[in-house]
Each structure stands twice: as structure tokens, then as C-alpha cells.
Amino acid sequence: MNIQIFLKSIAQQDQGKFDVVNKNLFNIKDFNDHRSFALIFNNLSETYDNCLLSKTELKNFSPELIVKGWTELELARVYLLVQISKKFEQKYDHIIEELFKTAGISELIALYKSLPFLPEPKKFLFRAQEGTRSSINLVFNAIGLNNTYPMNFFDERSWNHLILKAFFIDSDVSQIIGIEKRVNPTLMTMLTDFAHERVSSGRIVNPELWKLVNLCQDEKF
Amino acid sequence: MLKNNMYFIDPHIHMTSRTTDDLIAMKKAGIVAVIEPAFWLGQPRTSVGTFQDYFSSLIGWERFRASQFGIKHYCAIGLNSKEANNESLAHQVMEILPFYLQKEGVVAIGEIGFDEQTDLEEKFFRLQLELAKSLDILVLVHTPHRDKKQGTLRSMDICLEYGLSPEKVIIDHNNEETVEDVLNKGFWAGFTIYPKTKMGNERMAEIVKQYGPERIIVNSSADWGHSDPLAVPKTAWLMLEKGIPTNYVKQVCYTNALKAYSQSKHFKESDWLLNLNVDLSLEFYAGNSVLRGQESLQSIQESLIIR
Fold first, then answer.
1. Distance between CA atoms of A71 and A74, rounded to whole angstroms?
2. Residue B140 region by backbone torsions, left for phi larger than 0, else alpha for psi between -120 and 50, else beta
3. Spatial distance between the Cα atoms of A47 and B122, rounded to a whole number of angstroms
């Protein structure tokens, strides 16, 4: 099941709401009309709630579609972004770039969650890395947790810093996709140094860190 | 335990110029929600990009930062009166306002109005009132600190000229000279408790004694000047000491602000009511906390130890 079908199936559960989404996008003809894109993206909050998708909604989709912890509003926004990428094939990256510039927190979260589902996710590498630098934990978590983007597109340096930061800010590292797959010697050194720092300063070390270090060691580099 | 079991709204405070210490003190004093209007930064901006980034910080970082200390943060977005005097820049700001006015947490267009009452200030005040009317959003009006009486009357006349309902407009920074006209014309009357240059809280108590609590809203407008982010609770406690009835105090320091701004769909009492009984020693908001570890709000400020 691809993301389009999945998103559509959820969004369509309320046909009335869904028609509003499609109609608003249909009315935009000019790819430079950034104000209109910004408004329809933002104003989805009038139609969809920011409440978590229910278990019944979630059980119908395949495991490779990671929508854990998504809300209805996020789903609608991601659906809209995917539709934009289809309607404006040549310019969608430019349109989405502009959305990043004026996005509020909940919009940023939807933007980061959408990245793996866009046609050429690599185009948004800078934005994804920027998201991991955010001091707004909600934003960091949107790109770092339950998101396949870093695993698939971050180089080793960015990946290692994502993991290290997640430990540093006490994020739930068990929700980082690919954390066990992408262990590497540099990461092991960074994590053990970090752990020693914590111990010397009398602070707790997350037991998940040691699990990961052991995994690195097992890999026999 | 909150003093007198009271909690407060500060509907006009510039958190961008306040440190996190203030958020902690505000939380301890019982402030549950704040509204931060867009203003200038103490010196003129020279490009629209800085306005854009500032607006983004009001809906982004400041909103998040306050939430980490248990305070719900809302904002008003607008082109302030001082910077309306840079005409070409002001036009560019008008272009970006529509991107922000309907964002989550944005409860009004503001703070707009007059500073010196120049033609350009009037031009952009009018343009923003038109915008407010077309989007049906609330207006927060800054009244001038010099030639205040004339400026306030003029501001209200222009609002009425545009057909705005007075109950959707908050006229701020009132004093003894302006209060009567503002209340008589049906507007909300904001009072800024700010040392030396604006209202004092003893005078505020007298105003409430004279006019009653209706449509009066107390705020701090705390910014980068000598100001007090606890002005609202301190005014409430002083009023109680002076024998003003508790329900009057609650109105001017909480309920009236709630009523005025609940006219915006982005401002709801339920946003913060659920948080009120949280144990102060264990603060987690939205799943994470800048208070890493288990330090209580109490111990952070009083102890000699920094750990």
C-alpha cells in the first residue's frame, strides 16, 4: 500500500472534510502563490483536529508506513504536501521550502513527518538537518523519532549527532528508526565519551546507551 | 500552594525580552497564560526578514519556551506604530502579515496604533484594521505614551469608522485621563502596571474602586525596560489588601482577559485548566522538559548550588 492510498483512505473517512482539502488545492494555479499555499496548509487546522489517530484507523496500514504518534491534522497536512508534489512536479520543492519559512510548531512537525513521503526526499536534507538542531524538542522529535528519513538520508556525521543529541536531551531513543542498523565505530566512541562525561559529573546514564555500545562492540569492527 | 489560591492571565507581556527566570517566577506566582504582542526591539529593524523571523519566534520558540514552564503562550502579530514610519519597510511587513494572522496561538492583530500620531502611523493603523475586519480577528491597540488622551480618542474613532465592534478591540495602556472615554465607548480597557512611565497598582486599585471591574484588564507589558513580570499578581494581591472584593480582583486579573480573548478560536481556558493541579516538583510538558532531572521550581532559584 503506498502512502497516497493510505493517506487518502484515512482522509476520506470524512468525505466532507476531504473535499475541502482537495478543493482548496485545486484552486491554486500559480506555483508562486506562496500566500495561498501557506494559508491552505495552516487552515487545515479548521477542518482537522490535532488528536492522535485512533487504533482502528491505524490497524489498516502496512508496517513500512510509519505513522506512529501522528494526529489527524498531521495526516491531512502530509496528504496535502504529497498532493502539492504531484500537482506541481517541477516546483514543489520550492513551494515546500517557503512553507518551512513561516511554519508554526505544529506545521513544522507535519513538514518533517512528510519528508520521507515526498518524491525526492534528498532535496530537503538541509531542512532535515536543521530540524535536528532545533531547541524545540517537539520539532527535534518530529524528524528524529518514528521517521525513516535520517536512517535513509543522513550521512554518518549527521546520523551520529542525531543519536548523541537524542541521548543528551533525554528523548526516547527506542523510537529512533534504524538506531541498531547504523551503529558505527565513531558513534561508539562518541557515546562512550558521553557516558564517561555523565558519570564524572554525577549524572545518570541512560541504560539504552550501553545497549547500543554493546551492539557496536558486537559488530567486530 | 498558590497565594490566595488565585491564578492569573497576563494579556500583554514581551517574553522575548524576558529571561527564563521570569517564567519560573511567573509560574510560581500563579500566571497560567500570557499574550505576547508583536512590538519593536528597542531599535529600528531594517529589513522585512527580521520581522518574519521575529513573528516566527512568537509562534515558535517563545510559545515553546513558556510551555516548558507550564505557561500557555499566545501572541498578537502586527506592525507596531514606531516602525510604521519606515514606509517601504512597512509595506513589506503588510505583505507578510497574512502568513501569520491565522496561525495557531495568534489571538489578535497587535499591538498597533499610534506612537507620535504621524500620517504614516495612521495609514498603517487603518490598513491593519481593514485586515482585522476582513479576517474577523481581535485588535490590540497600543495608545501613545505622549499626548495620550488625544491619541486614544483618535484610535477609537478610527476603529469605529471601520465598523469594528468595540467588544472586539482592546485599548491598552489606559490611565485616569482615558479610562472613562474608553469604557463609555464600549471598548475593553487595558491597564499596564509599569513603574515610572505608566500605571501604578495603587492607582489601579483606585480606578477599580471608582469604575468597578467591568471590561478592565490588568497587564504588565513587561519588556526590556525596568518593568515587572509579576505586575498582574502583585496588583491582585494589593487590591485584596485594600479591600477590593475578590470577585472584582478575579475579573480584572483573569476573567475579563479570558472573556475578551476567548472571542478568538485560538484562546481557550481548557488549554491550561488541565495543567493546574500538576505537582510543581515534577514538570513535564509535551513529553519533554528543559527541567531535566527532578529539580523542583522552588530549589532552582533559592539554592546557592547550581547542579
1. 5
2. beta
3. 36
What is the C-alpha to C-alpha distance for residues B109 and A18, in angstroms, rounded to an integer?
A: 30
Asked whether the predicted pLDDT for residue A71 surpasses 80, the reply is yes
Contacts 24+ apart (CB under 8 A), A213-217: A213/A188, A215/A180, A215/A183, A216/A183, A216/A184, A216/A185, A216/A187, A216/A188, A216/A191, A217/A188
- Determine contact, residues B92/B251, Cβ cutoff 8 Å: no
C-alpha distances (whole Å) from A186 to each of A154, A160, A161, A221 are: 15, 8, 10, 11
ipTM exceeding the 0.95 mark: no
How confident is residue A2, by pLDDT bands cut at 50, 70 and 90?
low
d(CA A4, CA A22): 13
Of A42, A138, A202, the CB nearest to B103: A42
Q: How confident is the model at residue A14 (pLDDT cuts 50, 70, 90)?
A: confident
Rg of chain A over CA atoms, in angstroms?
A: 19
Q: Which three cell numbers stand for residue B240?
A: 485584596
- Residues in chain A with CB shorter than 8 Å from the CB of B60 are 104-105, 108, 136
* Inter-chain CB pairs, A–B, below 8 Å: 56
Report the distance separating Cα B307 and Cα B304, nearest Å: 10
